[in-house]
Amino acid sequence: MKIRTAALACLLIIANGGFSLPAKTVAANIGSEASPEPVDAPPCVGRDPKVAMPGAPHGMFAWAPGDRMTYLLKKYVIGKDPTLCGASLVVKWADVEKTKGSFDFSSVEQAAKPFTDAGLTVNLLFAEATEGKDAVTPQWVLGEVPTTTCGAEAKLPIYWNFKFEADWTALIKHAIDYFSNKSSIRDQIGYMRFATGGGAEAIGPPGSYGGHCADTLKNKFGYSYPVWKKHVFKMLEVMADEPTKHQIICALPSQPGGKSPNELTNEFATEAASKHVGLSFESLGSHNETAPGTQPGKCDPKDAKFHWCEAYVTYAGTVPLAMQPITATRNTNSGKLDITNLLPYALDNKIQIFELYPDEWLEADGAKEWQNFEPGKEQKYKAALQSASLTLGQAAIKSR
């Protein structure tokens, strides 16, 4: 019979401003009479010798929680579960620059409050255009630059238009300056990520990957692989050149048209690493590499479908590496994921920033008020998060 390892957490409380140190986790073999030995988890904030870049941001963060999920996290998780290091908040451009040149980041600070009040970290992911129907690009921007609706549910800007690039550049510069020097939460920010395409990512417009919009995008708007490459490199330079105490991270672009399938991804990663900009991708699990029954391990850099892999193998330890799963592990709409495989797989590939769906903590911490809660799965999820936190870090818990 195989002996399984269980992680049982106990809290060491000290007089430290009302906070406890990160939990010491006791590792024990189930069915073994050997005495368990405590294992120290690194802190969410500060140096972590267990990750590839010890001095860079690290940890597990709830991605884009929104009002409902934030309420549930506050009730069941924040201040109770040390595996939650904080949140990665998606910031819509339309919410912070309603009129040209008038920047107001108060909504971001308000969204961060449940996490920062608990001593947790927030990461800010700035989105420039929608991936669906929601208003992300300010209306004043859409009114002054070319737009397309082909293959989209809403108007999308032509990203490489010089006016659009200038407006997005202004937002990047103001956001970095404000959250580095002026914001009340400036000391609780882990990293900042800025889009080079759709969402807070690097998604090209419909037609840039082929399909019925390709001719329109090329003939009407001047799209080509070199044009897109020039655009994403230009935006990378903007975010890298702005002085800041925070880590800057950028999503890896993946676009057809190069000499090899992942030419743009790898060349972009090389340039980003030279500028100390971290790397991110948002599709882990999309090829069922972390599905039930799979074994965690290192990705294959020669497998082109894992566009991120070669760059991550090359630059682990040079810049911090981040990931976001393609979906929550309970879903099967975009891939099959198992949390007990997902987290170790990411660790095996030296990823030190996990942007996880809030679902994972709500399941682990018994959020019965959550409509998708599945009784009986709490221990599986809690054990997976606890195990990963021994490498990625645990938060200090405020004593009651």
Write the layout of secondary structure elements.
Elements: E1 5-10, E2 24-29, E3 37-40, E4 59-63, H1 66-76, E5 86-92, H2 93-96, H3 106-116, E6 121-127, H4 139-142, E7 147-148, E8 156-157, H5 162-181, E9 189-194, H6 214-219, H7 225-241, E10 247-251, H8 263-274, E11 278-284, H9 309-315, E12 321-325, H10 339-348, E13 353-356, H11 359-364, H12 378-392
Parallel strand pairs: 4-5, 4-13, 5-6, 6-9, 9-10, 10-11, 11-12, 12-13
Antiparallel strand pairs: 1-2, 2-3, 7-8
Count of the separate structural domains: 1
Mean pLDDT: 92
What summary fits the major beta sheet?
Answer: 8 strands, parallel, barrel
Report the radius of gyration as a whole number of Å: 21 Å
Helix content: 25-40%
Structural class, please?
A: alpha/beta
The largest beta-sheet arranges its strands as 4-5-6-9-10-11-12-13
Query: CATH homologous superfamily?
Result: Glycosidases
Under CATH, the topology can be stated as: TIM Barrel
- Report how far apart the termini are: 42 Å
Low-confidence stretches are 1-21, 26-37
Put simply, the count of helices is: 12
Number of strands: 13
Multimeric state = single chain
- The coarse overall form would be globular
Q: What is the helix/strand order?
A: EEEEHEHHEHEEHEHHEHEHEHEHH
- What is the strand content? 15-25%
CATH architecture: Alpha-Beta Barrel
